[in-house]
Fold:
Amino acid sequence: MKNLKEKLLKELDCVVPPLSEDVLNAPIIRAENGEKEEKKRSFTWKMVLSCSVAVVALCMAILFPVFFGSKNGVAVNSGYALVLEVNPKVAFTVDDKGKVKTVTALNEDADVILSDSKRLSEMVGQTTEKALEKFIDYSSKLGYLDLVNPDAVKITLSEKGKIADGIKKSVENYFMQNGIFTLVITESKTLAEISKNIGFGEETNIKNLIDKLSKTPVLEYERQVLGKDLQQIQDYYTQNVLLGDMKNYVKAQLSHNTVSENQVLKLNELNIKIATHSDNPLRIFEVSSPESVYSYWAVRALPFSNFTEEFGNLMAEMEEELAIYNSEHSQKINDYLTLKIVLDLQDAFDFDFIKSLLDNFTDSAYLENISLINQILNALSGEDFKDFDKMPENEQDFMDKVSGYSQSVYFAREKENSQIYSQQRKPLTEGEYQQFIDSIIKEYGSLENYWKNLQ
Amino acid sequence: MDGRQTDRLLHAVATGDNKAFEQLYLKTKNGVYAFLYSYLNNAQDTEDAMQTVYLKVKTNISSYKIGTNGRAWLLQIAKNLALDVIKKNARFALQIQNSKDDLFEESGFIKGEILEAMQKALTEEERRIVVLHVLWGYKHREIAKFLSCPTGTVTSKYKRAIEKLRRELKEDSV
Structure:
């Protein structure tokens, strides 16, 4: 695969022409230019209307603080920071308009959620409540939040009073509406304390913290290698990425695919029995046709199912085995062609060796066989998690590798937890939710004790 | 070409950075070229379309939403353009069909062992799937979404395409 890519890129390098001077020198038409042109064209009533709106807005801006919660005419809030801990840990900064300005992953689990810029963009620019809801929803989807048993999240804010209470209430509402028994524990700290705890010094001005975070990589992994030389980057990659969470992920993926071998062989064996059985209704005319014509799937597509007892039992056994296989694997087998594809892929690798490797999955055994493991995972999953066996060649390469890895973990966890996540839950009433809080306090003494117990 | 890198470069282009535009071209040109070729099957048309695609990047950058999938945005421009060219060519071909039957014959085949094998052995759709997976690093489910077909179809077509390529190249190293 890598070989194909390299060869293809080399050939394309000789074929693809350079850009013409016209294109290279063409101006970049930015949004502002377009807006200016638009303004020129649409002077008249639109201008009058926008002037009126501006005057009204100005009056509102002057009068609003007087009527709604200002102290001595000074705006109540100039923005704040908060840290959400589910298991993924993430920091949000919020501007004076209540909109999220930055989202920063504070651990590897948060990297998994924020590894895709699309997911990040769903939070930036939103209200705090919406951004938190989105992040918690992704945490639920990936199984970081326990949707079956009681759980808790903690929010540490540089705010007190109405804003903090409003945020807590909104997250609690999310849990109630989705029928999830999860507590919300809030704590207030100064901006300097929060800023220090997340590794950005004792910043006392929210605007400065927003500025710092907006210039810093979002992912924890990316921040770890900033300013490091190549050797340090490679050492970090080996110690913290390859031998970190990635090792467990790789082992789980290998186990997942290795276990399936016997199941696939059994499915194939059963399908052959069905296809060649003399009671197979499709064999009634005994025409010479490929195996697929008489397969389990072809028989199942018939408008009747009154088979002989022996043949009916075979069909039922196949149905049961397929249901087990499909519930355990992301690559579902729903037709004859897919069965053949899975068989071919498994033929290509020595799974006995993989099984023995999994029995003794030490750091050295893992690193020694990492190239083979890389090939197997690529072939079996067809995913983007590739070439992780090669050391990063520079900072950018490191970032590409870890974001690719985080993305793969995202999809693997999403598949693994899809059933629990998509289950319908009855919303909780306020009474039921309060009863849940009371029971936790009764058992643990306080919500904080419960939180400590979860850690 | 990594998605995040494309996003970062497009973000910079959106701020008017021409150096970032040049970088973007260097990083994506092979993928865009192969993708366009999978539609146009003709080197001359593909080369012309390449220039137009990157010109459109400069003129339409305001329609790129920062934080969204840059690779998909770029490939969508290429796809729309390729389909426009195909429509134009179809009209043109009809007009001249009677006078010059061999106008397009072999006029635009590109050279290269793998490229030629792809042209000979693969269907248009198979070529597109191979290009999107191998050069652009798209996952099968993403390709399925982009081409509006089931993931299983992409997986089986990709596998079939690789087998065909192996046979065509008579080697197992692919």
